[in-house]
Design brief:
By secondary structure, the protein is an alpha+beta fold. It has helices spanning about 15-30, 35-40, 90-105, 120-125, and strands at about 5-10, 50-55, 60-70, 75-80, 110-115, 130-135, 145-150. Helices cover about 30% and strands about 30% of the residues.
């Protein structure tokens, strides 16, 4: 395969990021319609200067970003790879780039939340060093959430 992969650091205002997030949300709500009422409020896109987009042959196919959770921890957010681009290692590339950005800003820990039904995502996160931890705010008490953490 001679596909060209390009990594771009950008912001949440990037139209390709907005497109990928809309695709991601559609995917999630089609797969888990019963969870929309519990999670929709956590799904707001605020301005974020820490966005990574991965392009495959000039087409945006994956994204991720982080935001400050507290003085030591950054939270991995909006992690998505389009179905047609999965299996190419792009998710691991995005996570690595996001972790570098967070570490460069002084964060020591990366945390994340995913849904317990996201077996592939949980497996990916464990593969790159995340461990399941107790749910953190705002996910405390949400039985469908799986929270994870790793030192970066």
């Amino acid at each position: 395969m001679n596909s060209k992969i390009k990594v771009v650091k950008t912001t949440s205002e990037n139209p390709d990021f907005i497109f990928l997030i809309e695709t991601f949300d559609t995917f999630l709500w089609e797969r888990y319609p019963e969870l929309k009422k519990d999670y929709w409020g956590n799904n707001l896109i605020e301005f974020n200067p820490n966005v990574i987009i991965v392009y495959l042959d000039e087409k945006p196919v994956g994204c991720g970003c982080f935001k400050k959770y507290n003085d030591k921890a950054a939270e991995l957010k909006r992690m998505f790879v389009s179905p047609e681009a999965r299996g190419l290692g792009l998710a691991q590339l995005i996570i690595k780039e996001v972790e570098i950005g967070a570490k460069n800003q002084g964060f020591e820990i990366m945390i994340l939340e995913t849904l317990y039904k996201q077996i592939e995502a949980i497996s990916l996160y464990q593969k790159v060093g995340f461990e399941i931890v107790e749910n953190y705010e705002p996910y405390i008490g949400l039985k469908n959430s799986v929270c994870m953490s790793k030192t970066i």
